[in-house]
Structures are given as C-alpha cells and as structure tokens.
Specification:
The structure is a homodimer. Chain A contains 8 helices and 6 strands, in the order H-H-H-E-E-H-E-H-E-H-E-H-E-H. The first copy, chain A, is of the alpha/beta class.
Chain lengths: 201, 201
C-alpha cells in the first residue's frame, strides 16, 4: 500500500541528506514546500541548481568568489594589508571575522583541518600556497585563526613548522573566557588557558 | 565588499524560508551542498522540481496521492472498512496512524484545523465532503483524530455539530498518560483527562 506519493518520498529522502536533518524534519520541509506558493519551491530548486555554476574559489586566498572572478575582493581591495594573513579552516570563518570589523588584513582558507581520522592530510590543504604567499607578499604576520580543537591546534603546529625560519611573526587567536560567560561555568581547559594568557591591566 | 558570492547568498536565503531554519542552519545546508558531490544537489533540486507535478490529492479522502490517481489506495483497498472514518488534520497524520497497524478503516484529511487567529474558517476545510461521505458510504463510526489542542478540540466540536442527528457513532482518540511517561511528570490537564477517562480493569 502506498501511503505517500513516490515524488514526495524522493523529496523527503533528498532532504534527509542535509546535515542534521532526520526523517521528521525532512517530512516537515517537504510538506511545507508542497503547501507553499510555487514561487517558494521554485526559488529553492533554482538556487540550488545555479549555486554550483555561480561559485568559485579565489586563486590566492581560496575564499568563495563569484564564478569567473579570479581573485577575491578581500585580497584586491587596496585597503587590505597584504602583509597580514589570517589563516582559517573554512570560507565561512571569514564572514565571522569580518563581522568584528576589527581586521584589515587578508585571509587564507585552508579548506579543512588536518585530521587523520577523517583521512585529511596536510597535503590536501592549501598550506603550500600559504607559504608561497608569505614569500611573495613579504608577509609580516600570520594569524593562525583555527578552532581551539585538537585538529585546529595540530594544523596550526604543522603550519608553524612549514613556515620554519622565515622572518614572519606567527600568532594565534587568544584563548580565554568568552565575553558574558561566568567564570564558574567555564571548563577547566578554557580557564587554564585564560590563566596562562593573562594580561597586565 | 562582497564576502560571499551572490549565488550562495541566494541559496542561503532560499533555505531560510524552510520552517525552523535560521541563518546559521541555512549557511550549513548551503555549504554542505557546495562541498558535496554534484549528484547530491542534483537529487535535491530535481526532486523539489518534480514534487509539485507528482503529488495530487485523493478526491475522496484528500490524502496525498500520485498525480493522476483519483482515489487513494487507502480508500479503494477492499480490506479497508469504508464505514469507519478517521478524521485527521494533515496528510502526514495518516502515516502516524498507519504505523500502529491497528487501524483498518479509511481516512479523511481536513487540510488543517479551525483557527480564527490564522484565518482558517470551517469552510476552508474538507468538512462538507466528510458529511457527504458519511451519507454516501453509510458510515457507522467517525473517529475525530485531531490534536489535543484548542484548535483540534474546537474543530472536533464543529464537525460533531455538522454531523447532527445522523445515526453515526462519533468518537475521539483517548486522552491520557503517554506510554513510558512517569505520572509525576505528566501535566495537570493530561492527568485530569486520564482520570476522567479511566477504564475498568
């Protein structure tokens, strides 16, 4: 007995491929599109269809750019300090840093973090290109803006080794108490890092 | 300055229309599709595109059926008792009831619940068609399987009034303690209903 039409079952299965979407959520999305105005589902499927042809990677920084554009605005903009590079794991990390409005350097997207469990080796990341940029742009400082995770830390360590004896300052983001979080609720490691990195008032 | 390519921003906005999807989740879905195999996004957009042309409504029960099929299998199947109708708000409620494997009657989908706040009047629901079925199929029992919410209860009451003096048993789903839930954690109203509806051992 057919409880649901095959076209709807296919759609529920397709939504189920998205990260964190279980069968109930997928059903909810599918039923929403079925009941919504045709324009809503048209907008969704046409933007999925067009996305792949509209998105490319910057050849310098590996940030996401409009297809056809070789280099990201974040690199070509004359207001950007090319001797300062923030190294991030994924393209969306750039959006997070830009929101602070406190950074005027350029970026370099690694395309992931070294993770033996997931089979990601340093060779798969854009580390060689980073070293090339350091030499080419006479970079003064590299900020390793990777996550405070095991993968983030070991990727940072690997990059530091690759930079070697080049005359460039290598820094990383401060670890410490997040703003607005009570000291008593901070985990031991964070609090330990906050103690280590204490600053003079 | 363009932080993200327009094609990706459009997709993030389109995902943001789905129920319960905020900007961060939409970004996560979009970035997943960008990194996934092309087949994954093809499956999703083509199933959204095809869905509307593949799904119709049963002319009897208003359940979801394959386009072109007039009447749902759940009605035409000879094993189904046409004199017993479970009235549900939405098509997916049928799936939930079918999973119990305890029901052998037919269904009637209202297409919503009476809700003055959302501007849903009884005339917009398939209530007239239900009354017609009751007369035509010589229905013995109508189970009002609507939610235990204000809208569900008031819709049930309205249907009961419309059925009027017809010789048909009108029942509703039992309210009481969900299986596996501790009595002390049940809310007052549920516990009150469980007391009211207590059964003889």
């Amino acid at each position: 007995m057919q409880l649901l039409p095959p076209a709807l079952i296919s759609l529920i299965e397709a939504f189920g491929n998205l990260p964190g979407v279980g069968p109930r959520t997928a059903e909810r999305y599918a039923y929403f599109l079925l009941k919504a105005e045709p324009a809503v589902s048209h907008e969704l499927y046409s933007s999925i269809e067009k996305m792949r042809d509209g998105v490319g990677y910057c050849q310098k920084t590996f940030a996401l750019v409009e297809k056809g554009k070789e280099i990201s605005d974040l690199y070509t903009d004359p207001g950007r300090d090319k001797t300062l590079i923030a190294v991030v794991a994924e393209p969306f990390d750039i959006v997070a840093i830009e929101k602070t409005s406190q950074y005027k350097g350029t970026y370099h997207v690694l395309g992931g973090l070294v993770s033996p469990i997931d089979g990601i080796t340093p060779e798969q990341l854009h580390i060689k290109q980073l070293i090339h940029r350091i030499d080419e742009d006479k970079v003064q400082e590299v900020i390793l803006a990777t996550n405070a995770s095991v993968e983030g830390e070991s990727t940072a360590l690997y990059i530091q080794q690759q930079i070697g004896k080049r005359k460039v300052k290598v820094t990383r983001l401060a670890r410490g108490l997040p703003v607005g979080v009570d000291l008593e609720y901070a985990d031991q490691i964070t609090l330990g890092r906050a103690l280590e990195g204490r600053t003079v008032l």
